[in-house]
Amino acid sequence: MDNRKLHLDLSRFDREGISQVMRVKLKPAKCSLDIGDGSERGEYVSQDYILNKLGRPHRNVGLMYTYYPLDKEWPKRSSEAYPDMEVHGQWDYPYDDYFPYGGGLNGDKNSSVFKQMKDIRRHGQDVTLTLTIDIKVSDEHLIAIARDLRSYGRIWLRINHECAGTWFTHNRRYTYEEIGEFFVRFHDIIKREAPNVTTVFCSGFAKPDGRMEQEDAFINAFKKADVHSGDRYFSLHHGWPFDVCDTGDWTYTINDNEDSESYIELVKKTIARLAEINDGKIKPFSASEFNADGDVTGPEFQGKPMLYFAKYIMEHGIEGFSNFSLYQFRDRGRLGLEMEDPNCPEVGIEQPLMRDYKWVLKQDYFNPGIEKLENINTKDEVNIPMRWGGADDSEGILMKVKLEKKPVFFEMALPRDMNLMVSVNGRWFYKAPGIRMIDCMPAFFSQDAEALNTPGEIDVMVFAPPFDGENPVTDAEDWDLNYRTIMTSLPKLRVRYEPCK
């Protein structure tokens, strides 16, 4: 039962075993991990489910939407607007078959994109919004979108991604020069109206001659963008879902073998060329869509190139390489950590890739760092400032908790009126506003739980993302970047080492 509706007796919770409390700060990982959640290939999956499945939050969670308000069938989804249209590929519709962006000029702030962004941010993550958009829309449309995003913290905006290609609507309707000019126009509006937003230019990779794809057409966009990006799959069944690929078919591509060495060299070459274009400045490079397709490799071998790449990054690093984003959590095909059950779309079927990805998730190289700020006197009434700047720049508390042995019960009582993310022994939990108590035992019994050295101490950390996922407008100059609140009572614990008798 939802404990928001219960008058729980918390008298058995105390602070015994808490040996030290300090303020701490999250710092960026050496290489961040992001993940896509929903696209033309799958539905959005709630962050509660993903967190419970993976055991830790990501830095960014990617959403994919489209905005073609000048088309007569808008705002219907393209495949729904043209149900009888004969199509032979995913991109044959008049405009991209992503979910329609419900904001913009005269938009609806209660539409799905805003609910999903709030869900992502409540769970201690930032948003990457991929938006394919008609470049003929007026500045009024772009200003409205920028203002939509102002209160969503350190959001990344990918504008008309994969724009060096030929398949998206923006490439079919407009020239590369027009697409590049539009990115610059939208970037400038974003910086005036929503300076919290990071713009991402996703154009591709360096060619064999060393120059970028469509370099001359995109030169100003390369210079304007905050982040550069490229989407490249180790393998991809690009004919999905209209055929079943088999050896020798033209509807799939293999870009790299399982050792992914050619991908690594391509990334290095691309970052170097982009730095030359930007007068020596190395901007962050994001591998925004990153995976091998199980339709090509088979499920058991899907994770091999990812593991090779992750291990290479950990050992050697790549200067300027910011993050990679697995595409995606749940997929109707074989790209996801889960495959959508065709009999019941709300159910996911775990794939072997999940096991491999969980290994990557646990490596320190891909996890945020922790900086200790100051100790807190637990005997006095507390008045602890909590700042949420984002998944890799936030301030919360860390408690050292002594354990005699592996507990049978480990529960936490937390302030009712706060939205909190809690890490216990390396596993993360979510506490929604109104919830009083969370059960933290999965940190000790789940299959991938951290090993315990008992008797000893474990770390318990608490952070406070925005209460409803959106930054409230305040008098603070940085309200759009930092959400602040105060913790007035420390968490309490109920730790037991034997079952009830």
Give the CA-CA distance, first to last residue. Answer: 24 Å
Low-confidence stretches: none
- Number of helices in the DSSP assignment: 12
Helix residue percentage: 10-25%
* Strand segment count: 25
- Profile the largest sheet: 8 strands, antiparallel
Q: Classify the beta-strand content into a percent band.
A: 25-35%
Mean pLDDT across all residues, rounded? Answer: 94
Q: Structural class of the helix and strand makeup?
A: alpha/beta
Which key phrases capture this entry?
501 residues; 23% helix; single chain; globular; alpha/beta; eight-stranded antiparallel sheet; eight-stranded parallel β-barrel
Commentary on this structure:
The chain has 501 residues and is of the alpha/beta class. The chain has twelve helices and 25 strands. Strands 1, 16, 17, 18, 20, 21, 23 and 24 form an eight-stranded antiparallel β-sheet that branches. Strand 20 (420-424) and strand 21 form a beta hairpin. Helix 6 packs parallel to helix 7. The mean pLDDT is 94.
